[in-house]
Amino acid sequence: MAPVAGSVYHAAMPLYEFMCAKCGSRDEVFSRTMMAEVIPPPCKDAGSESGHEMRRIVSKFVRHKTLSDQIDEAEAKYGAEVDAAMGSAPDVGRYARRYESLAKDLPPD
Ligand SMILES: [Zn+2]
Predict the structure, then answer these.
(1) Neighbour-count burial of 20, counting CB atoms closer than 10 A to its CB (0-12 exposed, 13-18 middle, 19+ buried)
(2) How far is the CA of 105 from the centre of ligand 1 (A)?
(3) 2 CA to middle of ligand 1, Å?
(4) Are strands 54-57 and 26-30 parallel, antiparallel or unpaired?
(5) Domain spans in the chain, listed from the N-terminal domain onward
(6) Distance (Å) from CA 83 to ligand 1 centroid
(7) Could you list which residues have their CB under 5 Å from ion ligand 1?
(8) Which one of 7, 15, 53, 87 has the minimum C-beta count within 10 Å?
(9) Which residues, including other chains, have CB under 8 Å from residue 5's CB and lie 6 or more apart?
(10) How far is residue 66's CA from residue 68's CA, in Å, rounded to a whole number?
(11) What's the pLDDT band for 72 if we cut at 50, 70, 90?
């Protein structure tokens, strides 16, 4: 992994990243020393559900998230919700109808 800005900070304060094996929710934990055993944080999205097991994932310098990381994260959090709301294909028709009705409100030339 190439060094990035902020890596000195990470060396002084290691960051560990965890991801829930059940829902994909992520959390980060700072450790004061490199050697300390890092205890997984509880899943933020677990609520009263069981089976949300946080697992250590390889840190990708998360303070400098790539766009694809952010998309992955959003997908994990909202993907199912968006799919449910949109169906299998984007609802292009709805937008088309909206533009049509907006166009009607325009004053005639
Ligand atoms: Zn979870």
Answers:
(1) buried
(2) 47
(3) 31
(4) unpaired
(5) 8-62, 65-109
(6) 19
(7) 20, 22-23, 25, 43, 45-46, 52
(8) 87
(9) 64
(10) 5
(11) confident
